[in-house]
């Protein structure tokens, strides 16, 4: 039996990747794909690579009632940060599994949202119920989870780079530096002076060097592994690439270890 799926914000880059992955999933059937701008248009009107995959399915305007009437099992929300806060709560309380790809439910500390995102989180009780969607760290918790907070792109690269060493206590957690090289697609489908690829071509530049908000996720997850506070300085750099993120973690050893030992940590 296929799970009935709704994708919110399906016309953006994240929504397009979701649709591509779900098209190939043997247990998923996308029955709703919302887009305010492209309502009524076929999926391939925006995502040319999906021509032939979603015959008969068109983008629809967002409506909670319409989605509930479709009796979906899973909602993937690719709405911008803050835009889907209440909708995620509504679907979750309706018994639907929700995977939120925004930052709205990633952080456990409600105060962190004031610092990093500039708003007071209206549903702090749900923050504890949300599972951070990184299977390398939360595989067992994700099984059967009803609210999943998809990690940020820079945060994912940084956490996966450092988690093995943090878990085994090899590095000084009081000072960790992360440099992330990211492609232009990270900025989303709406071009800006900073994210539009022609503006980035043949250039490299840091952004938010005083503190990128994904650092909050990295500190949260690595601190959990270390059972102690981990301090992270994370600076992304926009590079002349379209896709991908490459994280280089710079840390100091807390105890002696040779190269073979460290390689075994990553291999285990």
Largest sheet: 6 strands, parallel
Number of strands: 10
pLDDT below 50 for ≥5 consecutive residues: which ranges?
none
State which percent range the strand residues make up: 15-25%
**CATH superfamily membership of the largest domain, which one?**
NAD(P)-binding Rossmann-like Domain
Structure description:
The chain has ten helices and ten strands. By secondary structure, it is of the alpha/beta class. It has two domains: 3-150, NAD(P)-binding Rossmann-like Domain (Rossmann fold, 3-Layer(aba) Sandwich); 154-267, Dihydrodipicolinate Reductase, domain 2. The strands form two sheets. The chain has a six-stranded parallel β-sheet with strand order 2-1-3-4-6-5, with helices on both faces. A four-stranded mixed β-sheet has the order 8-9-7-10, with helices on one face. Helix 6 links the parallel strand 5 (131-132) and strand 6. Helix 7 packs parallel to helix 9 (214-226). The longest helix has 15 residues, at 153-167. The chain is globular and about 60 Å long. The two termini are 35 Å apart.
Brief characterization of the structure:
With 268 residues, the chain is of the alpha/beta class. Helices cover 33% and strands 21% of the residues.
Key phrases:
268 residues, alpha/beta, Rossmann fold, Dihydrodipicolinate Reductase, domain 2, 6-stranded parallel beta sheet, 4-stranded mixed beta sheet, 10 helices
């Amino acid at each position: 039996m296929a799970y009935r799926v709704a994708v919110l914000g399906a016309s953006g880059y994240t929504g397009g990747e979701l649709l591509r992955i779900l098209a190939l999933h043997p247990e998923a059937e996308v029955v709703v794909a919302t887009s305010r701008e492209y309502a009524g248009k076929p999926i391939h009107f925006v995502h040319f690579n999906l021509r032939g995959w979603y015959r008969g399915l068109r983008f629809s305007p967002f409506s909670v009632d319409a989605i509930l009437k479709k009796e979906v099992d899973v909602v993937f929300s690719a709405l911008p940060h803050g835009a889907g806060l209440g909708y995620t709560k509504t679907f979750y309380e309706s018994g639907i599994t929700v995977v939120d790809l925004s930052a709205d439910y990633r952080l456990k500390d409600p105060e962190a949202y004031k610092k990093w995102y500039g708003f007071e989180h209206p549903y702090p009780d749900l923050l504890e119920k949300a599972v951070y969607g990184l299977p390398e760290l939360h595989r067992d918790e994700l099984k059967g989870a009803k609210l999943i907070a998809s990690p940020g792109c820079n945060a994912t690269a940084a956490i996966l780079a450092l988690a093995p060493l943090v878990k085994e206590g090899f590095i000084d957690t009081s000072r960790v530096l992360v440099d992330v090289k990211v492609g232009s697609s990270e900025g989303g489908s709406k071009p800006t002076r900073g994210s539009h690829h022609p503006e980035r071509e043949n250039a490299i530049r840091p952004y938010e060097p005083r503190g990128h908000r994904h650092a909050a996720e990295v500190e949260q997850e690595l601190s959990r592994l270390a059972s102690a506070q981990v301090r992270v300085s994370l600076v992304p750099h926009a590079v002349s690439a379209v896709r991908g993120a490459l994280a280089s973690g710079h840390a100091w050893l807390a105890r002696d270890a040779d190269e073979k030992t460290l390689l075994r940590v990553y291999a285990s």
